[in-house]
Amino acid sequence: MCIDPLTAITLGSAVLGGVSSFSQSSAARDQANYQAAVQRNNEIISEQRARTVERKGREEERLHRRQVAQLKGRQLVSLAGSGVDVTTGDSVDLLAETAELGERDVHKIRENTQQAAYDERLNALSFRNEARLYDAKAANENPLLAGTTSLLTGAAPIASKWFSKSGKKAA
After folding, report:
1. Residues near 58 by Cβ (< 8 Å), separated by ≥ 6?
2. Are 161 and 39 contacting, i.e. CB atoms less than 8 angstroms apart?
3. Sign of the C-alpha dihedral, residues 162, 166, 167, 168?
4. Three-state secondary structure along the chain?
5. Burial class (CB in 10 A: 0-12, 13-18, 19+), 81
6. Residue 82 CB neighbours (<10 A)
7. Which of 69-76's residues contact partners 24+ apart within 8 Å by CB, and which partners?
8. Residue 95 to residue 63: CA distance in whole angstroms
9. Phi, psi of 142, rounded to the nearest 5 degrees
10. How does pLDDT run along the chain (171 residues), one tens digit per residue?
11. In this structure, what DSSP letter does residue 83 have?
12. Are 132 and 32 in contact (CB under 8 A)?
């Protein structure tokens, strides 16, 4: 049996279309897998940043407490050097106020640290969710199905032509 040139071209086009669809679907799946991996890396980086922010915040609190303690020491020395009784009255109030203000500052440092760490963890969550979306996209790509569908769609006119010449009906 001889195939006419138009049928051969149509068949060749169907095969090339199937191969092209397979390649495109495969590339889309690979791209989605790559993007998912990038997002997972971004998630890891954001989580590391959150831990770094927390570590630096604890260090900043510690440093501020030390500075407040040094300030109270200088105030105590200055008051005592001036001949003021440091165990009563305004001297005690001054030292207590310095300590209270220092703890307010520490509280603010902690709040800022917690907010910055929370923001980084929200970023990490966003990256994790984006990675899941890309994973789903990759899982839904089926190169074999795309190629086969394209091939069958392109071959349908050939089958129709063949059935009409043989006297059979296409299903």
Report:
1. 113
2. no
3. negative
4. CCCCHHHHHHHHHHHHHHHHHHHHHHHHHHHHHHHHHHHHHHHHHHHHHHHHHHHHHHHHHHHHHHHHHHHHHHHHHHHHHCCCCCCCHHHHHHHHHHHHHHHHHHHHHHHHHHHHHHHHHHHHHHHHHHHHHHHHHHHHCCHHHHHHHHHHHHHHHHHHHHHHHHCCCCC
5. exposed
6. 9
7. 71/98, 71/102, 72/98, 72/99
8. 19
9. -130, 95
10. 566 776 677 667 777 777 777 888 788 899 999 999 999 999 999 999 999 999 999 999 999 999 999 999 999 999 999 998 888 899 999 999 999 999 999 999 999 999 999 999 999 999 999 999 999 999 888 877 777 777 777 767 776 666 666 665 555
11. T
12. no
Structure token digits, residue 153: 């769609």
Number of H helices, E strands in the chain: 3, 0
Task: Count other Cβ atoms within 10 Å, centred on residue 162.
Answer: 15
